[in-house]
Amino acid sequence: MSDFHTHMGLEHKFVRLGQTAQTEDGIAIEGYASFFGEADNGNDVVVEGAYAKSLDELSQTGRSVKMLWQHDPSQPIGIWDEVREDKKGLYVNGRILTDVERGREAAALIEAGAIDGLSIGYRTVKATKNDKGQRLLSELELWEVSLVTFPMLPSARVGAKGEIPGDDALLCELAAALKEARQILAGD
């Protein structure tokens, strides 16, 4: 995490990116950046309604959730045209801008299958622990949704219009291995 993100108290959650479609304005992507009620590899569970206040405040002030490359605030690569909660989770729909150099690179990496993850950048406003030791995130200040290399919540994906792919067992195993490696390096 960059010094900027550490200073701002931002956290990140990773999800899986699926298929894309070419549009006149870039590469169209849509899907879920977060699912409610599912524990991620960090043992956090987002509660239904966690994004509502933040999305409402963004809308009222005319601001938007940013689309970034690997959580780098100096590398916006597209536009989220729609970010909303529904009964499943946080739905996103947007375009990777191929007129931007990093956007072209991201599109090429996605098309080659080298990049397929999304990650949310947020600040926790309200959270509690449950009896399973999970952190229940009930209010989040959403800042950005990034395209990333490794998703934290493999069941959540972006897909082609109208298609949200299912779980990917290999990515679940890889994410679990990364979590274990992080714990070993942290001395936990």
From TrEMBL:
GO biological process, one term: proteolysis
Domain Prohead serine protease: 23-159
Gene Ontology MF terms in the entry: peptidase activity
Residue stretches in coiled coil: none
KW Hydrolase (keyword) present: yes
Superkingdom in the source lineage: Bacteria
Pfam families: Peptidase_S78
Key words, A-Z: Hydrolase, Protease, Viral release from host cell
Name of the protein: HK97 family phage prohead protease
Species whose genome carries this gene: Aliiroseovarius salicola
